[in-house]
């Protein structure tokens, strides 16, 4: 874990206590809230910004799956996607990067990108490769699965490492309006409260910037046979009705677009205005 970038004094203005959203400061091997005095440990170089007792049962179940099989996750994605939907992993991820509208990022200051559910970091290199000349990015990621996070430095060997925290997407440990882009790929259907997670993504995004969410949904126009449908149901065992959660978007969401990134994945994009 020590291979992750350390949280420095410069980062503290971006972070916020997930319990009360108060300011955080260093105190030895921990971050301490200046508001409610909550203490958040740093273990192996990774800040643990969540309370285990507050993790929802469904999220604990999914974490067991990801912690137990992190080495198999990425190979399974690469191998299964073409079988299930006839489209490769690369073709599935390309529309996600396009939806982030990275060409519209400013060049006069460092920009901040947050990926919730960063997992093993499959999207990090794609974002860096798509950045236009002159854009400097401060890339952040979080995940509840420490098993997945342990695989991230190895996968990104030779690439810039994001600043990573272990946290619950239902209570993001960041200040309101802190990020120029926020996105999440996969796993939202397994969350205990997808609506709250979407509201948190919207909260930490700058007003008027895109929030992009991608997860499983079978394209109604996709002619999937019985075998493909069975495989799709097997990989979405945690969700009885995989679909784009348009009905769970936070109040005030605008520029809403819901479509397909690929035959088995929806792509939901929205923006938020000024927040109180």
Description:
This protein has 276 residues and is of the alpha/beta class. The protein has one domain (52-271): 3-Layer(aba) Sandwich (Rossmann fold), CATH 3.40.50.150. It is 28% helix and 22% strand. Strands 1-2-3-4-7-6-5-8-9-11-10 form an 11-stranded mixed β-sheet, with helices on both faces. Strand 10 and strand 11 form a beta hairpin. The protein is globular. The termini are far apart. The model has no long low-confidence stretch (mean pLDDT 92).
Keywords:
276 residues; alpha/beta; Rossmann fold; 11-stranded mixed sheet; 11 strands; 28% helix
What class do helices, strands and sheet pairing give? alpha/beta
| Main sheet strand line-up | 1-2-3-4-7-6-5-8-9-11-10
Going by CATH, the architecture would be: 3-Layer(aba) Sandwich
Shape by Cα distribution = globular
CATH topology-level fold name: Rossmann fold
So how many helices? 7
Overall mean confidence score, pLDDT = 92
State the domain count: 1
In short:
With 276 residues, the protein is of the alpha/beta class. The protein has a single domain (52-271), classed as Vaccinia Virus protein VP39 (Rossmann fold), CATH 3.40.50.150. The protein contains 7 helices and 11 strands.
